[in-house]
Amino acid sequence: MLSTSIFSIQNNSDFEQVALKIFHHQYINTKIYQRFCNLLGVTKTSVKHLEDIPFLPIEFFKQEKIVSSTLSPQQIFTSSGTTGSVASKHYVTDLNIYEKSFRKGFKHFYGDITQFTVLALLPSYLERKGSSLVYMAEELIKDSSQPRSGFYLYDTENLVSILRTLVSENKKAILLGVSFALLDLIEQHSISLNENIIVMETGGMKGRRKELIRHELHDALKNGFGVSKIHSEYGMTELLSQAYSKGDSSFSCPPWMKVMVRSPEDPLSFLATGKTGGINVIDLANINSCSFIATQDLGKINPDGSFQVLGRFDNSDIRGCNLMAL
């Protein structure tokens, strides 16, 4: 079964083999994607290599129902967007694949979830329906099996008390928060954490604060929490996988996800390592929608294969999960 091969990828050769099979599957079954490919003169048989695969502009998730399965959606994830903007919709026909992706992704980068207390500070996400981030956080909270794990909407006094207790007990924890809520927390409370507590920002001010460039945000959070690094998650409604940064502003992908950088002048060509262009994402967990997505983010690939997010293209919608240019 094609979906089972996604999480068995061991190397680049495996990745390309599975990606080509998924392209063929989606060319046949995702009709919007097929029409897009045909307009570019690309057919199922003309794609021989990874670089031949067309990337669907992410805006299509605002306009179309992008599915490669005849099954009814088990969940419809929606983007937060901004006032007056059109939300993206991701019709997920197999939640098991999403759950495998975020669980295996977390384990790949951080290890056993049961070793962590998971503290989620996601007020803007909890105030609406359809957030894939809230779904992931809720499942990781359950998986942790830690009594203090949970969502802390506006209960910051209790959250700070728990953080201080975890520090005194020398226990591991992840504080997962939207940027404006983390800034509010350190402005309202005096907190001194240790390196066992991972502070992870998901980006986005949601119109609550002035947008900050990434290093300004991280400097403020490092000072406020008394930690040397701020971790980050790179994810979005249109993806079922996440990349993570452990504090150096460079994101790494799990084995079933890959980032390529397209030329701003020619969106069908790709740039070499270190060159800045548009971020294209291959997310093989998106097998039942579209795995090949051209985002509106700007970035570059590092020599070690990790990538940096450097901002957004002009005139693109402000996305809730991304920061402005560095």
Brief summary of the model shown:
The chain has 326 residues and is α/β, with parallel strands linked by helices. It has ten helices and 13 strands. Helix 10 (214-225) links the parallel strand 7 and strand 8 (231-234).
Structure notes:
The chain has two domains: about 150 residues, Luciferase, domain 3 (Roll); about 140 residues, 3-Layer(aba) Sandwich (Rossmann fold), CATH 3.40.50. It is globular, with a radius of gyration of 20 Å. The termini are far apart. The longest helix is centred in the first third of the chain and has 18 residues. The strands form three sheets. It has a six-stranded mixed beta sheet with strand order 5-4-6-7-8-9, sandwiched between helices. Strands 1, 10, 11, 12 and 13 form a five-stranded mixed beta sheet that branches. The chain is of the alpha/beta class and about 325 residues long. About 40% of the residues are buried. Strand 7, helix 10 and strand 8 form a beta-alpha-beta unit. Helix 2 packs across helix 3 and helix 9 runs parallel beside helix 10.
